[in-house]
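User: Fold both of these, please.

Assistant: Here is the first one.
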Amino acid sequence: MKKHILIYLIGLTFGLGISISGMANPAKVVNFFDVAGSWDPSLALVMGGALFVTFIGYRLLFRRAAAPLWAGSFSLPNTRQIDARLIGGSLLFGVGWGIAGFCPGGALPALGTGRVEVIVFVVALIAGILLARALQKATAQKTPKSARV
């Protein structure tokens, strides 16, 4: 029960931060990307603040804890390789964020507004995730086991 309360409080804090910072407003996000027009640099301050807090938080956490409270180990990337899949995914994410004005982190709290464009974005997001998983599974089945990494 404590775990679920903690998860709820973390999600609530994240959602409030997204809402207060304006990242749930697609116009604000699109204006951030419009450097030749009505550029709004405030989103850079939000992202910079988040990176700073995350950097300090991870340093403190990994120094003090061998594992999370409710898991056997931390779930961290096991590779630092920059490959076509990472670059392609990053490009797709960035283009989608610039066009729609939403990223998954900003869209999920914005679902509470009930706006149709948010619902359409989240449905498209889920469809994209399912499609990517299906493609990944299909390509893994076609690749010989000796060629898999």
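And the second sequence with its predicted structure:
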Amino acid sequence: MTRSGRHDEALPALTQAEHQRYGRHLVLPTVGETGQRRLKAARVLIVGAGGLGSPAALYLAAAGVGTIGLVDHDVVDATNLQRQLLHGTDDVGRAKLASARDRLHDANPHVAVELHDTWLTAANALDIIARYDVVIDGTDNFATRYLVNDACVMLQRPNVHGAIFRFDGQASVFATADGPCYRCLYPEPPLPDTVPNCAEGGVLGVLPGLVGTVQATEAIKIILGIGDTLAGRLLLIDALGMEFRSLRIARNPQCPACGTRTITQLIDYDQFCGTPPLGQRTTPDVQEITPEGLLEWMVRGVAFELVDVREPEETRDGYLNGARLMPLATLPDAMHTLDRAKPVVVVCRSGGRSARAAKVLLADGCEQVLSLAGGMMRWERDIGAGPP
């Protein structure tokens, strides 16, 4: 019987074209025609059509997974192309779901692609995830990881986890019948602003290819019921040293999700993680200025200090005239040079680092500090590329 409850005799048949396409699978003793029919019957949800979702989706489509669901609500940015291979240069500005659908259909027209053009939230997670047999978590924020985990535990869906940062990656399988869940490994999220995202800390472009391919492999093994999955193990990948090692993870009997099961409904995960909701850049106690507002200041000739806290190499993609480069790590040593009688506007790529820098400046006695909402990404979107 398959994960979705279908008996092998009720599995969909393979067409002649599919027999030809999947020939290298059909000769594998542990796959064969029955296994390929299981793949065709399977439904896999991928949360996030980005760095991890790209290789996972492409390999699952190529393998013949019958239905692939994608959850995303973002558009393709030029900075995505270094690692998100579902999208190409001509897709910049398009919805990621549209780009992903076209790429997957080109990779395998036999695969159905279901699009969920939304952020995954406590209000829709159970309804979306319940439609699928396996979930691949390709997200890059803690709030959604806890949300995916809890929904998968409640619905008894395997959660194939992956995470990347700079040169390091990790993968595991959570929420299986006997294995641990994500909360067993991380009972509490890190403090807000202590873990930078990939936009701020960077990521080696091929790393999500390694981790996402591992996730696709685990999903296929779960569907076929073969091999040993990463359930109960955390795979750690060091791309610089090219070392792979795994750590054992035990189910925590006191885990509120899979242990005591005191979590019976999805919660406000942004509040739990202390982060703003997806799609919102606002930061409590840090005042923001929109790109339009900043442009108006420039046109009116308002006197203010403009501080760019990105790394020097990031400014090659665009900068604002008159900005003083003070990378976030060096800000405490350089901020004494600012004219504190003027308002200070802080700029970064997407708004995260500038908000943290604003807090540092406020704590040091600067009276009026504003963070550019959405950073240079929103400036380029709303105003245009290049200096004003």
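Residues 309 and 327 are 4 Å apart (CA to CA).
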